[in-house]
């Protein structure tokens, strides 16, 4: 007969949150991400036939596939670990969750899972920094705007490497005694990397929208700017909220942190793919074009300076193509290899 006392209070809550968040909720979120991934691939395949976008599209499809594979491994490994703990070691003193924590750094599958989560976090954060760089580097002193987010990114990467190394090397007794300040700082930096670039990009586009209205006197020509702002804000609101909640809960050591921590990576993937899909499918600009007369569509639009089409400008924000939106300057289109960082 089992002599272990029934789980109660915080310990019971932790076991419940670990089971639900690591299986049902995580599977649901990954299913949403996978649907967006398939829709994005379907919308991007026609671009492979276009010579000027082929390399950019190939890079982004490969990059997205890598993130999806890391997310899939994290989902499967979590399910395997939870199955082992909750079925084979359900009577462990303190419950299956305590069994997981005591064997945390002895299972190679968990170690690989930590690396995959780090790849997702760092990759999605790097994309945000790169979008900010592409947008703001088009003005004279815009490069200085990237300094603070870039420092936050380097700090986040350093703290994440520290966390992974300690998780995999320290004994469980010493790991439990680690203070939460580093984890709180890491979560705060990660949230900042999501929120700050989004605000700066949106601010830049709103300013350009106002500038177009002032120069041309036609508010409808600045609509694509606001459409892109809406896409970024809508896509990253949930991820920003998730990051803020995790940072706040980490500082107070709340058990519900387990739920948000187990699902954060999937939220990041959803936000990342949502932007790519909406731009690849043309939703960044087609709603504005539907209300334009035919002669307006064939002439100058607010994102058509220096022969740069609206769709190309939307791609600049999401995947790293330069934007030429200044009517007073002429700037040659940059090499896609240099922009994408492609090794090809």
From TrEMBL:
Entry keywords, A to Z: Membrane, Signal, Transmembrane, Transmembrane helix
UniProt feature coiled coil, ranges: none
Residue ranges of the region described as Disordered: 310-344
Ranges of Polar residues composition bias in the record: 310-322, 335-344
Transmembrane segments annotated in the record for this chain: 20-39, 59-76, 109-129, 141-161, 188-207, 228-251, 263-280
First and last residue of the signal peptide: 1-22
Protein name (Swiss-Prot/TrEMBL): Uncharacterized protein
Organism field: Agaricus bisporus var. burnettii
